[in-house]
Amino acid sequence: MHYITAGESHGPALTAIVDGVPAGLNISLRQIDSDLARRQSGYGRGGRQAIEKDHAEILSGVRFGRTNGAPIALQIRNKDWENWTGRMAPFGDVPEDLVREVTPRPGHADLVGALKTNTDDCRNILERASARETAARVAAAGIARELLADLGVEIFSYVTRIGSAEFAEEDPLTAAPDYKPLDIEMSDVRCPDDDATEAMKAAIDAAREAGESLGGTFRVVVLGLLPGIGGYATPTERLTSRIGAALFSIPAIKGVEFGLGFAAAASAGSKVHDPITQSSKDGFSRASNNAGGLEGGMTTGMPLIVTAAMKPIPTLTNPLMTVNMDTLEPEEASKERSDVCAVPACAVVAESEVAFVLANAYLERFGDANMTDIRAAVKAYRQRIKTMSR
Asked: Which of 20, 31, 136, 366 fits 14 for a cystine, CB–CB 3.0-4.6 Å?
């Protein structure tokens, strides 16, 4: 199963096509729209979110609420397109008064994309490199999330830091699986701690006042995974490589950790690796979860816990200096309508990327033709590993 997206930030629509989806999977458009709304939410978002109210339309591959085995096409219309038709028209003469973007923003794809594609109008780059594209990813991953939910797998995320404001957890690898998604969504910054939420909001307010932007960190947590999903024999089978690549595909992600992550490098092996246990009730398990649910590129059956770091948004109210691509003179970088902070939204996008990797791994392991056969294969696998543990 894989997806491809198309569309520009201020174009008519964003489109996603998901291929390789098994037949017989129940799809909830309401749930997809709920995830799209979560991606748009969060304290510190900009004016664009007041214009758009994202809604997914399914154009193919679903009939009477169930997948039919054909590629699924989804579309999200951009309401702001009405204000950009003259500047983003696919055909016609270039308007004489067209304002070209010739002052690339530091930290964005503007300059290097323009050099790559031989253009002096950064709008050709920034429209596609915009984080707006991630709305199509979230819609596409709604299919993956439905498949995982059908097989008993739950995914959520929460914010652990915005700027210098941190949710200081004593033992996150133990605590994270017990956080309630409803409590997280009740927070303006998607953080399960009230005090940390207020500190993060204050940091965003201060950044807005200073014309700055803020990044942060968040965790993605996955519950209900079977052990042995993924692979160890080749690099591309390993879920560590697949999930890492998927998260780094999000434009603003600068770091990814599994379990203890970099902290494992500062500890002795006896303090890092998780002792193996066995019981008639749980089968093989672990006494701790420092690995974050992955060993050798495969799931252990413990909660999957991944932490990611998002850099501050490149667009600043008080812009940094750049070079005008026409005059080659120093000038302030361009300003687009933008957010002060989008860490809570980025965490939702990260959920989606992780969901797609895991759904694909399940299909590789248990078949991909139809949900009846997949459910039967999962049931047989559960029984086999339970019998092995006796």
From this structure: 136
The annotation status of 164 as a binding-site residue, yes or no, is no
Q: In angstroms, rounded to a whole number, what is the distance separating the alpha carbons of residues 348 and 282?
A: 31
Whether 53 has a binding-site annotation, put simply, is no
Do the annotations mark residue 130 as ligand-binding?
A: yes
State pTM to two decimals: 0.94
The answer on whether 311 is annotated among ligand-binding residues is yes
SS (H, E, C) the chain: CEEEEECCCCCCEEEEEEECCCECCECCHHHHHHHHHHHHCCCCCCCHHHHCCCCEEEEECEECCEECCCCEEEEEECHHHHHCCCCCCCCCCCCCCCCCCCCCCCCCCHHHHHHHHCCCCCHHHHHHHCHHHHHHHHHHHHHHHHHHHHCCCEEEEEEEEECCEECCCCCHHHHHHHCCHHHHHHCCCCCCCHHHHHHHHHHHHHHHHHCCCECEEEEEEEECCCCCCECCCCHHHCHHHHHHHHHHCCCCEEEEEECCHHHHHHCCHHHHCCCEEEECCCEEEECCCCCCCEECCEECCCCEEEEEEECCCCCCCCCCEEECCCCCCEEECCCCCCCCECHHHHHHHHHHHHHHHHHHHHHHHHCCCEHHHHHHHHHHHHHHHHHHCC
Q: Could you report the per-residue pLDDT of 65-93, keeping only the tens digit for each?
A: 999 999 999 999 999 999 899 899 999 99
Is 271 assigned to a binding site? no
Asked whether residue 66 is marked as a ligand-binding residue, the answer is: no
Residue 313 labelled as part of a binding site: yes
Check the annotation: does 312 bind a ligand.
yes
Residue 190 annotated as part of some ligand binding site? no
168 Cα distance to chain centroid: 23
177 is in an annotated binding site: no
Identify the structural domains of the chain with CATH numbers, from first to last. Answer: 2-388 (3.60.150.10)
pLDDT tens digit string along 295-320?
999 999 999 999 999 999 998 888 99
Is residue 384 a known part of a binding site? no
Beta bridge partners of 302: none
Residue 389: is its pLDDT beyond 60?
A: no
In this structure, the dihedral spanned by the alpha carbons of residues 160, 161, 167 and 172, taken in order and rounded to 10 degrees, is 30
**Site of tokens 């097989």:** 151
45 in a known ligand binding site: yes
